[in-house]
Structure formats: structure tokens, C-alpha cells
Design goal:
By secondary structure, the chain is mostly helical. The protein has helices at about 20-40, 110-130, 140-165, 170-180, 200-225, 230-265, 280-295, 305-310, 355-380, 415-420, 430-435, and strands at about 50-55, 65-70, 330-340, 340-350, 405, 410, 470. The chain is built from eleven helices and seven strands. The structure holds fe (ii) ion (2 copies). One fe (ii) ion binds near residues 122, 152, 155 and 216.
Length: about 475
């Protein structure tokens, strides 16, 4: 068990004090991080006491401490899951060799790129969400937003620790650049598409935490398999925090669904919008957007990069142990692509299909929440079903980018797409309508905005009407 030091500038379980040079470098990065947080983190709430959980160790029970804290005083720490004794590389060409404690020279650039790409998503999402507090539907939701935000901040710390400790000057420069890019900035955007999309209303926030944070989960699961042991250990612990982010998304959407059903039933014409709510049609279009955008984050269907990450033991499949063949040199993967006007099957060498393998797991996992939302609709007595659009729908990356498909995956002409896509993706009018419901924040404990049902329970045994944020 690694021992935790919590009374230093940077809480950690990596014996930071034992490496003065590294400690100094991180302590120099810390004020830059804080400056970024104050500038780009939640706007208008930095002086408030927020009931937050803070990671204080990596023990399965008792890893987190809950208390009021002002966000700039949050104790962002560096925590690696405990080392596995005699850990071996679990897949690829190096399978069975001891996992690397240091970066192998030949993989240095690739590993750095993988870490930077993951690291970049963490502050990006904080930037995307920075104004949402000002339109919060309840104090409970406000607290959850901030919980997600501070933990994405900690995930940035996790990646910056790796950059500083293993990549020398290049790593330090990358750590600075992670604080310089800005979500949505045309001159210095964040690296991946979805992380530059505006997230300006709470329906988007719930969809983002359900679909986009879940992409994060699968990337972290794949990196947790890495032969580079420090990366494996840090991502394993990040997954502990990530679960709550997806919970926020799943239950957030569920509560909007529940309220949509109530209001639809209340209305003589069955229109939830007439009753001041979000209707299920709008919800489906938001779902279509965030799901399809998040699918892009997995990269191209056929990818020589993915093959080489796998071959060299840098990035595996999610829960690699579930597969029998960890070398994957012989298998093929059948995928569909558009050739001319027809969808044709194609067999791809398995290693080249690793992005698609990971995407499969992700899609299956996404469906679980959709099933729950549909159960709520059914319980309300309505005959509507939410669905995940086909994975070819609305893609900008990979085999299906540049072609048009309907939500069931059938090819469309550009003219058909122009004619019909307003029914499938949020329109400017949808976005304006959703925003119009969220013009003022709800700060009274226990009170909920009109368009969302209350949660089933509060946080950490506290009641729903607990004062989760003391807003001044
Ligand atoms: Fe994260
Ligand atoms: Fe997250």
C-alpha cells in the first residue's frame, strides 16, 4: 500500500518529497493551474462553500472525503492505484514481458501524444461548462456540476504528473500547453472535436456527462491496460471518479425524461413544451447530437495508429482479460462501409479495427442508460421510445464522415439530408427554446426548476434539500 501525504502543497501517494526536482517542477506548475482554474473554471462561484468529495487515498472504501470547500482551495492531488506485483504487459507483441516503469525510448513520442490527448479533454470540459452554474436547476445539480469540474481538474493533474515525471522538458512544455489551449477557440482549440462544442444548457450538460464522459471511461479502460505501468495505475484510479460523472448524466437525463412525461400527460394536446417543459422529441435530438459526436472520439474505424498502439503494448482493449487472444494477429473484424450507393461488408485485420472494438463496447454501454430512460417512459404510460442513432449517423471522423445517413443508418443524398436533418439534430430554435427555460438559477435548497424532476436521493446520505452550495 502506497502511503498518502496530504499535508503538503500537492497531496500525493507517489512520494513526491523523494524527488525534489519533480516536486519543484510541479509546484511551479501549480499556480499556473490555479490561475487557469480561476479564469476558466466555474464563473461566479469561486468564493462559495461547496459540499464536495475530495480524493484522499486509493483505498476502495474511504478514498474520498466529503466536506464544504471553496473550489480554489480544493486539494487537487496525485494518486496512483496500488502497483500490481510483477505486472506484465497483457497484449500485443510485447505480451508477457514486464510492464515498463520507465518510458521505452522508441515509444516516447507516441506515449506522450496519448497522454496529452487524454489530458487535453480534462480542462476542455471544465471550460465548456464554466457558465452553467448561472442557470442551475437546483443546488443539488449545481454541486454535481462542480464535483465533475474539480475532478476533471484532478484528471488534468494526473496526466501532468506523468508528463513531468517521465518526459523531461518536452513533458513540461506540454503541461504548459494544456493550460493554454481553449475549448472552442478557433486559434488554439482543444485537440478533439467534441471538446470544442458549446455546452451551454443543462440538457447538453447531462448528455455530455452521459455520452462524452463515457467515451472518457472507455479511453481510460484502454489506457489502464497499458504496458506503461504509471499510466495504467493513474488511469485506474481516475475511473473511480469517472463513475460519478456518468451517474450525473444518466440520472440527469432520466429526471428530464420523467418531467417531460408528466408535462406531456398534463397537456390537453400532449405537448410538454406547452407546459413549459422539454419534450421528448427535443431530448432525442440532443441525444442524437451528443452520441454521434462522442462516437467520433474513438477515431477512425480502420486505423493503423490503433494497430500500432496495440502492437506495441501502449493501449489495449477495455478489460483486455475478457478476450482470449491477446495478440490479435490473426483475427478479422467485419465492418460495414459505403461503396458507391451500397453498404458493403468488409473484413479488416483485427489490430486495425481496435478503435471499432472499443466503440462497440461503448455503444453497448450507452444503450443501458437508454433502456432505463425508456423504462421510465413506459412506466409513465407513454408509447414513445428513445433510441441511439446508428453509428454511421452524423459522423465527422472515420469511414462515414463526408457521407449522409439517417438515424437508422441508411444512406441519404445531400438534398435529403438538408431537407430532413432538422428533425434529427437540435435546431437553433430547439437550442433557443431549451435555453429560454434556463434563464435564472434556482438557489433555494430542495427547489427544482420546472423542467426537471427531483432526484431520488441526495449525495452521501444528505437529503435532497441539503444546502449543497452556500451561494453568497
Ligand atoms: Fe476526466
Ligand atoms: Fe469525467
Amino acid at each position: 500500500m502506497s502511503s498518502v501525504v496530504n499535508d503538503t502543497k500537492i497531496p500525493n501517494n507517489v512520494d513526491l518529497a523523494g524527488d525534489r526536482k519533480l516536486q519543484r517542477a510541479l509546484e511551479e506548475w501549480q499556480p499556473n493551474f490555479l490561475k487557469w482554474w480561476v479564469e476558466m473554471g466555474p464563473e461566479g462561484f469561486q468564493a462559495d462553500d461547496v459540499y464536495l468529495r475530495t480524493a484522499v487515498s486509493v483505498e476502495p472504501d474511504g478514498w474520498a472525503h466529503f466536506d464544504y470547500v471553496k473550489m480554489p482551495d480544493y486539494r487537487w492531488g496525485i494518486f496512483l492505484s496500488d502497483a500490481v506485483t510483477d505486472r506484465r504487459i497483457g497484449f500485443g507483441d510485447e505480451m508477457g514481458k514486464p510492464a515498463w516503469q520507465q518510458v521505452p525510448g522508441e515509444h516516447r513520442n507516441t506515449l506522450r501524444r496519448l497522454i496529452v490527448t487524454q489530458g487535453d479533454t480534462e480542462p476542455a470540459s471544465v471550460e465548456q461548462q464554466r457558465l452553467l452554474g448561472q442557470t442551475c436547476p437546483s443546488l443539488y445539480d449545481l454541486r454535481n456540476l462542480f464535483q465533475v469540474n474539480v475532478e476533471e481538474g484532478r484528471h488534468l493533474w494526473a496526466m501532468v504528473y506523468l508528463l513531468h515525471s517521465h518526459f523531461g522538458r518536452d513533458g513540461r512544455e506540454e503541461a504548459e500547453a494544456l493550460l493554454e489551449r481553449r475549448s472552442g477557440d478557433p486559434d488554439k482549440p482543444r485537440i478533439l472535436g467534441t471538446f470544442n462544442e458549446p455546452c451551454e444548457d443543462w440538457l447538453s450538460f447531462f448528455m455530455f456527462t452521459y455520452f462524452t464522459d463515457r467515451d472518457g471511461k472507455y479511453q481510460l479502460l484502454a489506457l489502464a491496460e497499458s504496458g506503461f505501468d504509471p499510466l495504467s495505475r493513474t488511469t485506474r484510479f481516475m475511473l473511480t471518479e469517472e463513475a460519478h460523472h456518468m451517474f450525473v448524466g444518466e440520472t440527469g437525463v432520466l429526471r428530464v425524461v420523467q418531467r417531460a412525461c408528466e408535462l406531456q400527460k398534463l397537456d390537453p394536446n400532449g405537448d410538454a413544451r406547452n407546459q413549459g417543459g422539454i419534450d421528448l422529441g427535443t431530448l432525442q435530438r440532443y441525444l442524437n447530437f451528443w452520441f454521434s459526436s462522442s462516437l467520433d472520439l474513438f477515431g477512425g474505424e480502420v486505423s493503423s495508429n490503433a494497430a500500432s498502439f496495440f502492437a506495441s503494448g501502449l493501449k489495449g482493449r477495455a478489460k483486455e482479460a475478457q478476450y482470449e487472444d491477446h495478440v490479435a494477429l490473426t483475427g478479422t473484424y467485419r465492418m460495414q462501409s459505403l461503396k458507391g450507393d451500397a453498404i458493403v461488408d468488409e473484413d479488416v485485420a483485427l489490430r486495425n479495427a481496435m478503435n471499432e472494438v472499443l466503440r462497440d463496447e461503448y455503444v453497448e454501454d450507452c444503450q443501458r442508460g437508454v433502456d432505463k430512460w425508456n423504462r421510465a417512459i413506459k412506466e409513465a404510460g407513454l408509447a414513445v421510445e428513445l433510441t441511439l442513432p446508428h453509428r454511421r449517423f452524423n459522423r465527422r471522423v472515420g469511414l462515414h464522415a463526408g457521407a449522409r445517413f439517417d438515424p437508422s443508418g441508411q444512406p441519404l443524398s445531400e438534398a435529403e439530408w438538408t431537407h430532413k436533418s432538422a428533425a434529427w439534430l437540435p435546431t437553433a430554435a430547439d437550442r433557443a427554446y431549451v435555453k429560454s427555460l434556463m434563464t435564472r438559477p434556482i438557489y433555494a435548497p430542495g427547489q427544482m426548476a420546472h423542467w426537471i424532476a427531483p432526484p431520488k436521493q441526495g449525495i452521501k446520505g444528505r437529503p435532497v434539500d441539503f444546502e449543497y452550495v452556500r451561494h453568497t
